[in-house]
From TrEMBL:
Its main location: membrane. This is Signal recognition particle protein. NCBIfam families: ffh. It comes from Sulfitobacter marinus. Part of the signal recognition particle protein translocation system, which is composed of SRP and FtsY. SRP is a ribonucleoprotein composed of Ffh and a 4.5S RNA molecule. It is an enzyme of class 3 (hydrolase). Composed of three domains: the N-terminal N domain, which is responsible for interactions with the ribosome, the central G domain, which binds GTP, and the C-terminal M domain, which binds the RNA and the signal sequence of the RNC.
Amino acid sequence: MFENLSERLSGVFDRLTKQGALSEEDVKTALREVRVALLEADVSLPVARDFVKAVQDKATGQAVTKSITPGQQVVKIVHDTLIDVLRGEGEPGSLKIDNAPAPILMVGLQGSGKTTTTAKLAKRLKDRDGKRVLMASLDVNRPAAMEQLAILGVQIGVDTLPIVKGENPVQIAKRAKTQAAMGGYDVYMLDTAGRLSIDEELMQQVEAVRDVSNPRETLLVVDGLTGQDAVQTAENFNDRIGISGVVLTRMDGDGRGGAALSMRAVTGKPIKFVGLGEKMDALETFEPERIAGRILGMGDIVALVEKAQETIEAEQAEKMMRRMAKGQFNMNDLKMQLEQMLKMGGMQGMMGMMPGMGKMAKQVEEAGFDDKVLKRQIALIQSMTKKERANPALLQASRKKRIAKGAGLEVSELNKLMKMQRQMSDMMKKMGKGGMLKQAMKGMM
Ligand code: GDP
């Protein structure tokens, strides 16, 4: 019996001897397993389908690395793709809370962990970011919920808005705003009422609160153990209220984490935090790596992936040095360099790191030579055939048109790229002839 995805993939690939590249058939077989495993991990069907497609595109034809098995390599591609899908924009766990007092609206179903999460987040903002926080409960139908927040407030040393009987949620939200402004608070958090399931009244109430408070962040709290239901909840709240992020609770339980992937894919909104227990400090920044490991169901997956990464990089670097020493530099080499630059934060990032280059980095930025340009250049190379990449001399007018069109760009951009490749190639040849690179390589080895 295959326990998890990693074992399954190894099972599929152990039978294969190493070939030059992953064949389409190999990848297909592996991806059938990936799809089943994703569904078992509670990823929804359309998301699993899109995901598998993305992996397939990346994996087919990728060169097999020396010291890891093809199975491990597919695991790595799956892992990296998972992280790509899971990662939101911006710093993980960052919140837009400048312009005090910044309102944070907390929404979700009853029992999802909303009140607990409100307090946990307030504590985090106070302890880690030194913010003054005010919490207010808007759950007028459940006095116990209002008291629960007040008790938690005392426990963590965060103020709560005094409870006034007979007010409706909109009135409480307005009072919280006034109180936060007058009291010099940085942030005020509105813990809205939940229902056991989504209903019209709940949505209207949350909408009304949203409209009076204009929240900087609207965080949806969902129970990570509820799998597909959680995804449905997220979709509904996002459509009606417009959320800015998700907090997944009960990730200390044995849910398999697939809901995280579906939720991210379906709503397009980042998962910002995860709840890992009932205690007030059991809230952590969401880390895609962890969830990816969990979905793959393998404890040491991260170590394995890191090893694979190092091996791949070392092999690439070695190969490139050897080619450069021979004075060779084609489009594949250029692509590798561009990708390397992109990884290091683009031209600006690289220059920013070098002393005295800050000013030049700015000029580069002004010239429009940034990550976007790098990505366009890579897209152009990707639009070339294998033969064309290996031998750029083939690139005549009609091929150039096709390539530019394939990348959705102008031929003039392709011309610039070709000029760059020619210059690099000339430089390599000169250095190769003079034996400079060979000398340098000797020195390094
Ligand atoms: P609300 O109805 O959405 O406000 O839910 P509560 O905040 O009252 O939480 C319901 C229950 O879930 C409480 O017993 C919490 O202690 C518990 N809870 C909340 N977050 C987590 C979590 O991340 N892990 C675990 N294990 N329990 C949690």
